[in-house]
Amino acid sequence: MVITSFGIEKEQMEEVLREARAGRTQLPDFQRGWVWDDAHVCGLLASISLAYPIGAVMMLRAGGEHVRFKQRPIEGVVLPTDELAERLILDGQQRLTSLFQALMLGKPVATRDERGKEIQRWYYIDMRKALDPNVDREEAIVSLPADRILRTFRNETVADYSTPQKEYESMLFPLARVFDADDWRVAFEEYWDYKPECITLWNQFSRQVIRRFEQYQIPVIELAKDTPKVAVCQVFEKVNTGGVTLTVFELLTATFAADGYELRKDWEERQRKLKQHRVLREFSNTDFLQVVTLLATWDRRKRAIAEGLEGERAPAIGCRRVDMLKLSLDDYTRRADHVMSGLLRAERFLHRQHLFDTHFLPYGSQLIPLSAILSVLDKDWDAQGNNDKLARWFWCGVFGELYGGTIETRFSRDLPEVLDWLKGGPEPRTVVDGVFGRERLLSLRTRGSAAYKGIYALLLREGASDLRTGQPSNFANYFDEGVDIHHVFPQHWCRQNNIPPGLCDSIANKTPLTARTNRVIGGRPPSEYVSRIQNSAGITPDQLDAHLRTHLIDPAPLRAENFAAFFEHRQAHLLQRIGEAMGKPIETAFVSEPEELVAEYEADEDKVFDEDNLQSVPD
Quick one: which of 196, 478, 219, 272 has its CA closest to 356? Predict the structure, then answer.
């Protein structure tokens, strides 16, 4: 992070608040709204009254050439025109807004109580309590409702401070008058008929409390207007007292808004369309910006190479945070519709791989390079040669488990390498790097793994049909039939027959089943449930055997309840199909028995059975 310059000075709190009221100090549009509750406001006012430090405020000098944000005044300020700010608040919004509303707004503060209920409050300070050294200062801060009348829950009046005379009588000073106290003082002394003790009380209160508000200084760190956008983003996240993360989307929303473009409104419309597609519904605004950035930086690099720059001299392709922050409005508007088209093509591609919703999508992140590639391919994306290579690249990423963690660098390689490969170039790094070890099959037990989800989809793609109807799953019946993954040898049977949980819960002992078929199976032994399926479906043993083979299940050991023979056959055939999908043959002959191989993967958490086949619930 590079910050060209910054300074720190102590500034009068009153002047800082007056600048906010005049619109000379505003908020960048990416700042969240004011959220402090009544207790926080009272605590802040108590600290000021004691001249306690409340922390520094950080601002950015406005008018920089490369950092332009849409601006908005702090909560409560109404400007007659779109006044351009001189400074933008990066850190300290909650404190400055609370102080402005309580001390300068001139009307009740709209805040919240401890339960989050919206309330309106005036803030006072009890003069006598404030001067009593034995009273905690926060007890001297009085929060009153909008009508300044305190009531019980039965609406009975407890105390009434609704007129200036009642303020004088109760010796409650309105903090909204703290920077203009003379008129209140004159009326106060007149109300008490200029009694010496009341004048003395006022003088002490003025010296010990009001003067502290008038003279209070706030340390202000000011970043120069030439501070880079990425530095603004990082500074905001590191110093913001709300502890919130500023997303790239929020920062670009504020940046584009300076040119009159409503990025949030544009995204909400695109998101509404994406949510109509099950496999795309969780694609986020940051994901979308990453695809746009990939395409923009790829175009930039191509142009540079065409102009004679080569290798590292040409700008890099990227979609990291720093790359997205450099995205211009023109970059976005020129490519956003193309990205939408790429995403819709990605959905059709995934449907061909029998991935129909986000629930079993191996890597949501792989949608980023996939949609970027399909945005460029346009009408040629579904030509068989292109589609076959895309499928191989996809499955190498899934079974090689290459898209977990920090993977922006892989995205940046995928786009040019896959496109070049489709034109006859070398295999992409993802295809080269994708390796699936046969031992990995034994450790896949939960849907948290991308490879686990991949095998489930691969079985559907290879034609795994419903055991009762013989119908293969497709988009039309997948959701209606409640297809999910379940055990072949039920957990109850495995537990009774001392099958290690690691083998029982392995993906090699699981297969896609409809909800109705799973209910027929229940926790019954295989020899029993195959008969129930035949009888309920009115099919012959040969017909059921044919259905079982579409799941890569050998019917003979299943009917004989020979788990070891079933497992050996199934793992070999699963490995064969995985190798075919990746375009890389996998050795399928295990030198050890399954029980020996699984031992090294056994862990305490794997020894807990989940009773998915005893009830009709997902695995």
Answer: 478
In the predicted model, is pLDDT for residue 92 greater than 90? no
Helix (H) or strand (E) holding 110: strand 109-112
SS3 content of the chain, % helix, strand, coil (to 5): 50, 10, 35
pLDDT at 618: 34
Of 586, 575, 596, nearest to 444 (Cα)? 575
DSSP letter string, 298-327: HHHHHHHHHTT--GGGSPPP--SHHHHHT-
What single DSSP character describes residue 509? Answer: G
Pairwise CA distance, residues 602 & 295, whole Å: 44
Q: How far apart are CA 453 and CA 363, in angstroms?
A: 9
DSSP letter at 437? -
Three state DSSP letters for 277-296: CCCCCCCCHHHHHHHHHHHH
Band the pLDDT of 154: cuts 50, 70, 90.
Answer: confident
Assess contact for 139 and 152: CB atoms under 8 A.
no
Taking the C-alpha atoms of residue 616 and residue 249, their distance in angstroms, rounded to an integer, is 41
Cα–Cα distance measured from residue 350 to residue 118, given in angstroms and rounded to the nearest whole number: 47
d(CA 413, CA 364): 18
